[in-house]
Amino acid sequence: MPGVTISAGYGAGGSMIAPAVARQLGLPLLDRAISSRVAAQLQVSVPEAEGGVIKRTGAGRFLAVLAPLAGGVLGAGTDCAPPEGFPPPDDAALFREQAEAIMRKALVTGAVILGRAGGAAFRDEPGVLRVRLFGPAAARIAQAARIEDVDADTARQRLPEVDRARAQYVQRLYGTDIDDPDLYHLQIDSTVVPLDACAGLIAEAYRRCAR
User: What is the value of pTM for the model shown?
Assistant: First the structure.
């Protein structure tokens, strides 16, 4: 089995659980594609970037920023641009093509992938364990405040914005609902199950499936 994809709602602890799973399995971690830092480099907002809404005139800049995010997994010199002479795809298709190319190269030798719509991208690939982390909004707000060291009001404001952006990302690129249970083999309420236990469950599920 080449790896694990982990999808997480805001405050579900994906940023803590995914690195722990990677450490337990001895696999590299491919983190979320879009962050506020990347959005700033692209000169677009986080919702625009997560939704795949990138102006075609900025596509080259987008590819240049996105490809190095696989550092430590793909190595230097990654270039997944379409061959010269091919007709330019629409923005969502270009975004999806580049994101999938990075993930597939990472999975050649095994990887833990956080976000990046991995559950949707690999829904038909039996060799990938697909995981969803969720929990009630109130519990995720409280957990996000602890993880990010922010007050509850800040976390409460961020939750709908981040959840919406991640849902739009999956919908825009794959035309599916991020919460569709058919996308995942394993779903965990990570506001009830301790984060370290979540990581252990995922790692053990991966080991058993890999056998």
Answer: 0.73
